[in-house]
């Protein structure tokens, strides 16, 4: 990943954790960017799905209507579970619903990402866990 891209992502994720309005806006923009794309498995679309997967690990949409909208988008995108887009969507469904249903907070999300707690991982998406740890390390939230 490009260093500048990663720095920008770190800044966005850090601000979304504490700001519900910004988190809602990020979900809306990511849904918009990943909907009906001409090349669902293209590098640009998959970059948006990576960001979506990271934010789904950390915070569900703060509003119920946006949560329902995000779930519908994930389910529609997950229809082709063999594609990269479909696998990202399935991952987002699992992580987003887990965070929403359990009420996990930021600290618990860090514990999940660093392996202090057991999590089920899709082997095809193991790089996401690594990328999320990179983001958290850069934010100063995780120390090794």
TrEMBL record:
<dbReference type="InterPro" id="IPR000857">
    <property type="entry name" value="MyTH4_dom"/>
</dbReference>
<dbReference type="InterPro" id="IPR038185">
    <property type="entry name" value="MyTH4_dom_sf"/>
</dbReference>
<dbReference type="Pfam" id="PF00784">
    <property type="entry name" value="MyTH4"/>
</dbReference>
<feature type="domain" description="MyTH4">
    <location>
        <begin position="1"/>
        <end position="118"/>
    </location>
</feature>
<keyword id="KW-0677">Repeat</keyword>
<protein>
    <submittedName>
        <fullName>Cytochrome c oxidase subunit 1</fullName>
    </submittedName>
</protein>
């Amino acid at each position: 990943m490009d260093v500048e891209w990663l720095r920008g992502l770190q800044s966005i994720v850090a601000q979304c954790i504490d700001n519900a309005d910004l988190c809602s806006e990020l979900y809306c923009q990511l849904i918009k960017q990943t909907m009906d794309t001409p090349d669902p498995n293209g590098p640009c679309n998959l970059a948006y799905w990576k960001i979506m997967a990271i934010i789904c690990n950390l915070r569900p949409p703060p509003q119920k209507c946006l949560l329902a909208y995000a779930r519908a988008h994930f389910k529609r995108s997950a229809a082709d579970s063999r594609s990269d887009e479909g696998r990202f969507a399935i991952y987002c469904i699992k992580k987003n619903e887990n965070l929403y249903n359990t009420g996990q907070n930021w600290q618990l999300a860090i514990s999940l990402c660093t392996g202090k707690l057991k999590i089920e991982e899709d082997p095809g998406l193991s790089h996401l866990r690594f990328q999320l740890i990179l983001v958290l390390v850069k934010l100063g939230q995780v120390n090794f």
